[in-house]
């Protein structure tokens, strides 16, 4: 599944193969994204919008700034009802505007640009 999260509209709907789902109170269903890069879970409350004998549709609202935090990538996901995993898999998250590169430049303080290595022994194979 691919989730497109625009910063202008952080609420998305998606359907899963969970037939005849029920929701007694808000917060029964929790949709969790787990980054394959940082392995940090991002739990989100999922509201049941529609259900029938074949599938259920859920609505999730992402936190403000999710798109600006450069969250593009592949995620493991699961959806739980009262802490019991009902469905799990992989998803691709695409955000708009996408944020920065998320890199921090590193400067060791040592000038290494002009170093030349000396080779003392190089065998001929």
Structure description:
The structure is a single chain. The chain is mainly β and 125 residues long. The protein has a single domain (2-96), classed as Immunoglobulin-like. The protein is built from no helices and seven strands. Strand 3 (29-35) and strand 4 (41-51) form a beta hairpin.
CATH superfamily: Immunoglobulins
Order of helices and strands: EEEEEEE
What would you call the structural class?
Answer: mainly beta
Q: Would you tell me which CATH topology applies?
A: Immunoglobulin-like
* CA radius of gyration: 22 Å
In total, the number of strands is 7
Under the CATH scheme, the architecture is Sandwich
Question: What is the secondary structure topology, with strand pairs?
Answer:
Blueprint: E1 2-6, E2 11-16, E3 29-35, E4 41-51, E5 56-61, E6 73-81, E7 84-96
Parallel strand pairs: 1-7
Antiparallel strand pairs: 2-5, 3-4, 3-6, 4-5, 6-7
Question: How would you sum up this structure in a few lines?
Answer:
By secondary structure, this protein is mostly beta strands. It has strands at about 1-5, 10-15, 30-35, 40-50, 55-60, 75-80, 85-95.
């Amino acid at each position: 599944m691919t989730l497109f999260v625009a910063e202008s509209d952080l609420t998305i709907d998606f359907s899963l193969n969970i037939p005849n789902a029920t929701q007694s109170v808000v917060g029964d269903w929790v949709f969790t994204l787990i980054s394959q890069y940082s392995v940090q879970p991002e739990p989100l409350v999922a509201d049941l919008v529609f259900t029938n004998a074949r599938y259920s549709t859920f609505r999730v609202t992402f936190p403000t700034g999710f798109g600006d935090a450069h969250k593009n990538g592949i995620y493991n996901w699961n959806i739980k009802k009262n802490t019991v995993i009902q469905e799990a898999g992989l998803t691709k998250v695409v955000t708009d505007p996408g944020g920065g590169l998320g890199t921090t430049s590193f400067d060791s303080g040592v000038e290494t640009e002009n170093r030349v290595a000396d080779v003392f022994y190089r065998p001929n194979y």
